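User: Second chain of the day. Same drill as before.
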Amino acid sequence: MMQRNTGAGTPIADAERYRILVEAITDYAVFMLDPIGTVTSWNPGAERFKGYTAAEIIGQNFSQFYLPEDRAAGLPGRALAIAASTGKFETEGWRLRKDGSRIWAHAVLDAIRNPSGELIGYAKITRDLTDRRSAEEALMRSEEQFKLLVQSVTDYAIYMLDSKGHVASWNIGAQRIKGYQPEDIIGAHFSRFYSDEDRERGEPQKALDLAAEHGHFEKEGWRIRKDGTRFWASVVIDAIRDPSGDLIGYAKITRDISEKRKAEQALEETREALFQAQKMEIVGQLTGGIAHDFNNLLMVIQSSMELLRKRVPDDEKLLSLIDNATEGVKRGTSLTQRMLSFARRQDLDQKPINLHEFIFEMTDLLQRSLGPTIVIEARFPIGLSMVRADANQLESALLNLAVNARDAMPAGGPLTISAREENLAPGNSLRLAPGKYVCLALEDKGEGMTQDTISHATEPFFTTKGIGKGTGLGLSMVQGFAEQSGGRLCLKSVLGQGTTAEIWLPTAEAMEADSALPSSRTVTPPAKPQDLTVLAVDDDILVRMGTVAMLEDLGHTVREANSGEEALNILAEGAKIDLVVTDQAMPRMTGVQLAEAILAEQPNLPIILATGYAELPSGLGSVLPRLSKPFSQEQLAQALNAAIMKRAKGSDSPDVPPTFK
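Assistant: Same format as last time:
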């Protein structure tokens, strides 16, 4: 066994050094497990840390440190299996002390193998991150166990210094992290790990002095490997004293946390962006809720205006007022759709789209919308993959971006629409899932934006236009649409040089006979069906009154219910119901839950779901026919007719449910 002089004149065997080293570490619980997880050694640090004496814990399985739910989920066995197969396992989580109290622990589990490669156990290092209390480490059951334990740890450089700071021992983790072999470094001063500037400031000696004075020193900073490269290290130095209190050396633990530092720097650099994202999430939730409630109000107004128009005298002024109110409903509907789009809660009908054909078909619409001073140029590569998106929402997004470009070029100019395909790798700057995407870009040569304006551009209700010239929801809508479609909106601009708006959308494989799928836009209602008895369910009395009035005006008999429970009671009484129209967002029982309960008893009863949200549960919620609020009497009639036709044909629920907008 190789020995070296510590500088104090007393040779210390390697095994003894390891024993002293582990004994001196106060911030980590270090112990060993046999191959099945039984505790085979225990130190005073672990005893202080976890509350068990050696007599109480040796021979017990380490799983008793885990929470009951973690044991039930098999986490202890999974940790051993991962460590055995990969050599190590690292995690953070809640652990239990003997007294039942919880601690948040950082744990590293390293597999221990003998020279022949046979698994003989595990080395486990745990640190209390709850209050970072110091914990004394104790002797392991044998000096060889200490040596195996320290030498098996690869994620930490664990070594000993003599009282003057010379390296007295060196483990595998130190070799891996710092690049030195034991023969290269033992006997050398540890200051060589510091940068030149730190050595000039006397940082190595300051660290030893503080550890000697307080018993413990901890810091993060740059350290130097053998090859001269730098890494950001977490360093802990503990003073080692003999029974008489004389300083005989130091225990040193170093960990390479360069990746952690990079992550922290990235978090710091994007702190404002993260804060903004959190604010936008809250605003999005609020906006979605407001839009939902606003849709209900529009539903009341629209149904009343439609029925009122049928009954007023043929008075041009009265009809004009009603038409104005109806037009206001349409504008309000458009506004709520933008709000729901920003909140990523609008109902999307996603299908494969050939962008080249799509833009070609939109050219006339774009040119009419932008005027003769804007020259549209399209540049598309041959063989561009199709994207999956909602055609109506994509058209609206492109119109929004094109109008913004026009407004940025008051004297006119070119608007270039182009597309390119890219395969994004993991960790890409767009923060999109890896895979193939198409970038649809609109570039203008207008006024451009400052970086501050860009940072606020997608905020709801933010606009640089004059009062009354914009809602400030255009870019918010585009962003919400792109993100709900699995993509992203990116804005690039230089003040005075123009702006490029990019919509990134995931590619989609071409679908054969896509037009054969049921489509809400091609539903042609037949002649009015026989008079039906319809059960209308909605917790909002005003919305329910409007729906009932439209149904009765269509010649149907209507039963009303203000909740799912009341609707089930009506059906349980044996009432003859031909069809159910139910709201989705109701307290205690949603529309989907009501439908599940109804179909369990009457599987052939048609049910139509009225909702303004796209976020419906999978399963039945994804196949029920939907009415998008606010809906007109014509759309209501279409939905009823389609449901009755489906029942008459005895067909199963379609893979893609019809949606009536």
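The longest strand covers residues 102-113.

User: Great, on to the next one.
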